[in-house]
Amino acid sequence: MTTPALSAPPALGPLLARGALLSPFKRPRPGVVFSGGRLTLPRLRVDLARLAAYERVCGFPTGDDALPITYPHVLGFPLAMRIMSGRAFPLPLLGLVHTSVSLTRHRPLPATGTYELLVHVDRLAPHRRGTEAVVVTELHQDGERVWESESAYLARHRTPGQEAGQAPPGVEGRKDGEGAEGPLPVVDEWRLGADAGRRYGAVSGDRNPIHLSPLTARLLGFPRAIAHGMWTAARCLAAHGTPDAARVHADFRAPVLLPGTVAFAADGRRFELRGAGEEGRVHVRGRVEPVAPAG
User: Fold this and answer.
1) How far apart, in whole angstroms, are the C-alpha atoms of residue 229 and residue 286?
2) What are the tens digits of pLDDT across the range 10-69?
3) Which of 57, 119, 178, 272 could form a disulfide with 79 if both were Cys (CB 3.0 to 4.6 A apart)?
4) pLDDT at residue 64, as a whole number
5) How many CB atoms lie within 10 A of CB 111?
6) What is the arithmetic mean of pLDDT over 223-234?
7) pTM of the shown model
8) Using CA atoms, how far apart are residues 204 and 239, in angstroms rounded to an integer?
C-alpha cells in the first residue's frame, strides 16, 4: 500500500472544523472497523521558536539541541487529525478522549535535524466504555526509526447488554490503583491557571474546545475546561526527567479541571499527577524505563 507523502504539515484549524462538522453524522458502535489512514511527511524540520515556546509552557529547559521526548507527538498531531477528521474515519472527532500514550525514544533527537514523520491508525479496539482508536506515530532519521509512539483515543458508547460503566464481555475493566506498587512520595504541588489549556493549545495546535473555556467545555459535558492529557504528561516528564534512550507510558485516568491544584509524585521510575491532598484523585499515572540505545 502506498503511503501518501505530504509536502507540509496540514493546518489544524480547518481539520478540527471539518471533524466537528462531521461528528454528528458518525455513530460509534461495537465492531466498527477502519482500514486505511496512513500519511508521511518527509524532510521535516523543527520550528525552533515554536519548540522553545512549547518547552516554556511544559517546563522543559530551553536552548538544548534536543527534542523533549513528548515533542514528536506534537509534530505528528496534525497528520493524526487529518486522518481522524476524514469522512472515512468512523468515530466522531468531537468527544474523543485521549486515554493513554506510550513513547519510545531510541536516542537523543537533535532539534536541528531533518526527519521523516509517519502516522497511521493501527486499529480500533474495544474498550469497557466504547471503542478506542490506536494511533501510531514514528519519527525516522536517515532511514532509522529514532522515536515512536502509540496513542489511544476513546469514543464512548453503550455496548449491547452493557450497563453504564460496566465492561463489555471480553474487555477487562481496570480499577484505579490496580497494579500500583505502593504510594509515591509527593515532590511538588502545581497551581494550574484557567488559561493552561489555551496556552498549551497555542504551542501545540490542539485547540479542542474542551480545553479552551468553561463555556465550550460545558457544551461537551465537562463542568470546566480541562487540561490536555499530553500537557500533563509533558509537565510530569519535565519534572521527572528521562534517559536519552527511554520508554514512557502514561494513562490519563481522570480529567484535570482548570483552574486547580495538583500534586506531582514520583520515585525515579514511576510518576503520578493527582489532586492535592491525601485522598487526591489520580489524574495521570506513568512509568519511565531506560531502553538500549539504537545503533
Assistant:
1) 12
2) 999 899 999 999 999 998 888 888 977 899 999 999 999 999 999 999 999 998 889 999
3) 119
4) 84
5) 19
6) 95
7) 0.88
8) 19
3-class SS letters over the chain:
CCCCECCCCCCHHHHHHHHHHHHHHCCCCCCCCCCCCEEEEEEEECCHHHHHHHHHHHCCCCCCCCCCCCHHHHHHHHHHHHHHCCCCCCCCCCCCEEEEEEEEECCCCCCCCEEEEEEEEEEEEEECCEEEEEEEEEEEECCEEEEEEEEEEEEECCCCCCCCCCCCCCCCCCCCCCCCCCCCCEEEEEEECCCHHHHHHHHHCCCCHHHCCHHHHHHCCCCCCECCHHHHHHHHHHHHCCCCCEEEEEEECCCCECCEEEEEEECCCEEEEEECCCCCCEEEEEEEEECCCCC
Mean pLDDT throughout 199-217? 90
Contact 215, 224 (CB under 8 A): no
Q: Is 283 exposed, middle or buried (0-12, 13-18, 19+ CB in 10 A)?
A: buried
Cell of 219: 457544551
Annotate 16-45 with DSSP letters as a single string: HHHHHHHGGG----TT------EEEEEEEE
Residue 145 bridge partners (DSSP)? 140
pLDDT mean over 147-176: 62
**What is the pLDDT of the chain when averaged over all its residues?**
89
Q: In which element (H, E) is residue 197 found?
A: helix 196-204
